[in-house]
Amino acid sequence: MKLPHAQSGVGEEQYSSQKKLCDRTALLRSIPGIGPVSAAMLIAELPELGRMTAGEAAAMTGLAPVPHDSGAMRGRRAIAGGRRSLRHVLFQAALAAAYHNPVLKPVAKRLKERGKPHKLVIIAIARRLVTIANAIIKTGTPWQHQFAD
After folding, report:
1. How far lies 31's CA from each of 28, 101, 102, 128, 135, in Å?
2. In sequence order, what E strands does the chain have?
3. What is the pTM of this model?
4. Could you read off the pLDDT of 112-132 as tens digits, one per residue?
């Protein structure tokens, strides 16, 4: 049985779409700290990834600090807004990345030595993870750790 021309195009379109998703997943999984759940959530909850700036990506995930200022009073900065479910998954990914990612591990150590609270350190790592993921999807090149000589 032969499929009509209109239906055969749909199969090719679905295949190319699925191939793009697999490629994006492989790129995200190349980042130490991003596992299968984190990669799937980033792709599902943040389809704009790779087409925005680092600040926009952080704001969309709710990892950007929001100022609570009024007039001359400077209030505290806290994370708020964004996609809550994605923020929770990225928090878990940041916990892993803070100990296993060769680039983010020294950053976490430096923040802890400066006396920053544990939660602040993990949120800072999560924001960096989103920035890295955005850059990797944008460039289409997998994670490569380069040691400084």
Report:
1. 6, 8, 10, 11, 11
2. 65-67, 77-79
3. 0.81
4. 999 999 999 999 999 999 999
